[in-house]
Input
Amino acid sequence: MPNRTPLTRFLIEAERAGQITPELRLLIEVVARACKSIANEVRKGALGGVLGDAGTGNVQGEAQKKLDVLSNEILLEANAWGGHLAGIASEELDEPHAIPDAYPKGNFLLLFDPLDGSSNIDVNVSVGTIFSVLRCPDGASPPTTRDFLQPGRTQVAAGYTVYGPSTVLVLTVGFGTHCFTLDRDTGSFILTRRDIRIPADTAEYAINSSNARHWDAPARRYIGELEAGSTGPRGRDFNMRWVASMVADVHRIISRGGIFLYPADAKCRDKGGRLRLMYEANPMALLIEQAGGAASTGSQRLLEVQPTGLHQRVPVVLGSKNEVAEYERCVAEATARRASG
Ligand code: AFP
Output
């Protein structure tokens, strides 16, 4: 058997190195186990009676898919009794979820999008779970919404599981970004890439181009230059990918580089953007930065954004650091032009 490092061993070694506490190790293992359960449900597809709408809506005003609701329930149940959490926040819940009185409380806050990309479920395109871990402020029992509103740089762990041709968990505890592939024969996540490094340059970008007419000047300029390719100022050709599952698009970037953009535009500006800060942008930003990439709102490092609401949305540009810098340059020059009148 080749040298295979299961997630459990990786986490025990991280604990021995002083990178995580036993409580955080337990938390990550519980979340990983819940993701395996979600993967099993996703894989059933039409045969599992889990496709289609649940007939309910969430705080985002979006119709919930049956798998949205089921994934949320799996994560809530798995994390209720372990004693490692003080509270939970979910894309699918208006307010923070308190750990039931019957169970001991821990020192961490867990936030998640239980099933990201759910509009892709019924057409068999990759979806995923995104999670973020924060420390619970001392004495916050039960934690209130305000206790969750910490900038992304304070995360102690972040990760996602993408349910694709293979089930892959990508994790950081602040010491690099690492990739684990589910071995269905043993039920273990096996380390398949340690210390991932995202190339600083890329020829691949991801954006929903159907929104082009709503974009602000910086996005129009930046994307226009990529579309012009070798005939334009960039002097080389680019390729475009858009899965419309952030987890799938980010995993491609984690795997081979690229830039992902969901800028605020005329369509979503009043909401602050399209993607949620606390349980989409922040965990992805930490994973990307830990892999040597960059993550920005276009004018600010994403991990520095001070949250004002549990479900607030934010503009997101992340991936290969030299391309993120190019986009930020377009924003800065547009800002300077406006300032100079
Ligand atoms: P759903 O979970 O509603 O499918 O939204 C997915 C998502 O939050 C993110 O995963 C995608 O990158 C983005 O929305 C896709 O947005 P568009 O549907 O506007 O392309």
User: Anything to note?
Assistant: The helical segments are 7-16, 22-44, 66-78, 145-148, 217-228, 246-256, 277-290, 321-340. Residues 245 and 284 are 13 Å apart (CA to CA). The longest strand covers residues 108-116.
